[in-house]
Structure formats: C-alpha cells, structure tokens
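Thought: the user wants the 3D structure for the chain below. I'll pass the sequence to the structure tool as-is, report back what it returns, then summarize two notable features.
Action: structure_tool
Action Input:
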Amino acid sequence: MKLVNLRYLRTKYGYSQTEIASRLGITRAAYTNYESGTRQPGLKVLLQLAESLCGFDG
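Observation:
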C-alpha cells in the first residue's frame, strides 16, 4: 500500500524527508520506503506521522 499523501503533506508543510525521519526517530531511508510504498509503517509510526503532518493528537 503506497501512502500517496505522505509526500504531498511533507512538501506542503516544507519538511524534508530527513526532518520527518528525525521527528519519528527513524532513518531517512526507512521514511523514504514508506513514501514509496516499499514498506509499511507500524501503528506507532503512523500515529507519529499523523501528529507530525496533520496535527492529529490522538
């Protein structure tokens, strides 16, 4: 499953892949894999992404 909106949201808010990866505590390569659909993030990382990119606090 490719998370197509990840790149859109990341660029919309002006973040680099390195910045997002740092906020999530993962490598840039791991984040790149999520954006490209090569790998799928776990629930913890998905929640962190929601908080970082969408302002979700849940």
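Final Answer: Structure generated. The helical segments are 5-12, 17-24, 28-36, 43-54. Residues 33 and 51 are 19 Å apart (CA to CA).
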